[in-house]
Amino acid sequence: MLTVRRPNRETPVRIGIVGGGQLALMMGEAARDLPVTLSVLAASEEDPAHRTIPDCLVGAATDPDALAALAARVDVITLDHELVNLEALGDLESRGTPVRPHPAAVRYAADKAHQRQALAAWGLPVPRFRVVTRGNDPELAAFLTALGEPVVVKAATGGYDGRGVFFPDTGAEVRDIVDDLGGVAVVEERLTLLGEAAQIVVRDPADNVVAYPLVSTYQAGGTCVEVDYPARGAGAGASAQAAALAREIAVRIDAVGVLAVELFWTTRGWLVNELALRPHNTGHWTIEGARTSQFANHLRAVAGLPLGPTTPTAPHITMVNVLGGPRATAAPASGPHLGVHDYAKAWRPGRKLGHVTATGAQESPTRVAAWEAARAWGTREEEPWHSSPS
Ligand code: ADP
């Protein structure tokens, strides 16, 4: 394995981030308290990361020359998103710049077919699925007949926030969607979800792993709108299972940095939905809500610095995403129990513009405080109705 080279322990580790979105912006905030310096490869001059990372190159995350220019300035490379060129990242590694997480690990997040097949082969719980490339594949017909239930069709690559996820009603629709996608698709059983949750762990190159507490997540139209600690209705046993599952996946795929595991809670227990190998929306609450934020621990892992404690700072924490409503409005002020994070993105209806996190002693007032702030900011979404996953 490549190690991060630096002249001595006092020299800051130079980290290059591929992608200049809000995750890079928040890594920039976290870096202020760490012995690291950041450079970023951003797609445009308007990207959020410019606000916190002065050393910004502008170029495409998939462009080998732009990646080489970033690599030339830093000791180690990490990612703000997974829509990257895994081959070009592999080339950087073979030319001596460590990439953390490794490109082979990133593929489990970037390619849903690869993820489902690997986890199933390891005996880890995933929805029943088939990987297909054409609608008239006989295996697909046999799968649909054997299942006898509605399915979900997902593009294997390129989708996010519900884009590339389809809920067809008939077999004919399934076949059409697979053909329209024109590439690799995952067709899987449509589950009755008792709840959705996320488990974040952070692994360093020496195989130390820390786990954040499990959180409940709520989506609208495929986009996460709310995250709550503690996870609603998940007892100690289910929480421990989720953490053990995420730890096992982190080791199996050789993750370095944050691994977020999105989970479905079903009558068959936990099933893994998605993996992300970077700070994740379901971990934004850790900025105010944990002793070490996911952004700080990600940078620590990437730089080979000791990981920080993940203990929550309050009994109840709610994070609400602010998605652009019908018209642009300004972010409200932060308060003692309220963190307001404005990603400085141009307003667009439905766009993730920022998030708010409330911390408190009791569940209901904490949740209300977060939603009041998000509404004052003009978020598009309504507070979701909460059911209990147990
Ligand atoms: P994306 O990669 O765009 O985030 P996901 O695979 O996470 O897409 O799906 C988005 C949402 O769609 C999930 O959070 C869940 O609410 C719903 N969903 C996805 N797969 C299934 C499934 N197999 N059964 C039921 N609901 C699903």
Identify the overall geometry.
Answer: globular
CATH superfamily of the largest domain: ATP-grasp fold, B domain
Distance between the termini: 42 Å
Helical content class? 25-40%
Question: In the CATH scheme, what's the topology name of the largest domain?
Answer: D-amino Acid Aminotransferase, Chain A, domain 1
Order of helices and strands: EHEEHEHHHEHEEHEEEEEHEEHHEEEH
Number of helices, where a helix is a run of at least 4 consecutive DSSP H or I residues: 11
Average pLDDT, rounded to a whole number, is 95
Strand residue content: 25-35%
User: What is the name of the CATH architecture of the largest domain?
Assistant: 2-Layer Sandwich
Rg value: 21 Å
Pairing-aware structural class of the strands and helices?
A: alpha+beta
Structure description:
This protein is an alpha+beta fold. It folds into three domains: 13-110, Rossmann fold (3-Layer(aba) Sandwich), CATH 3.40.50.20; 128-189, ATP-grasp fold, A domain (Dna Ligase, domain 1), CATH 3.30.1490.20; 195-377, ATP-grasp fold, B domain (D-amino Acid Aminotransferase, Chain A, domain 1), CATH 3.30.470.20. It is built from eleven helices and 17 strands. Strands 9, 10, 11, 12, 13, 14, 15, 16 and 17 form a nine-stranded antiparallel beta sheet that branches. It has a four-stranded parallel beta sheet with strand order 3-2-1-4, sandwiched between helices. A four-stranded antiparallel beta sheet has the order 5-8-6-7, sandwiched between helices. A hairpin with a 5-residue loop joins strand 9 (195-203) and strand 10. Helix 1 packs across helix 10 and helix 4 packs across helix 5 (112-121). The longest helix has 17 residues, at 236-252. The protein is globular and about 60 Å long. The N and C termini lie far apart (42 Å).
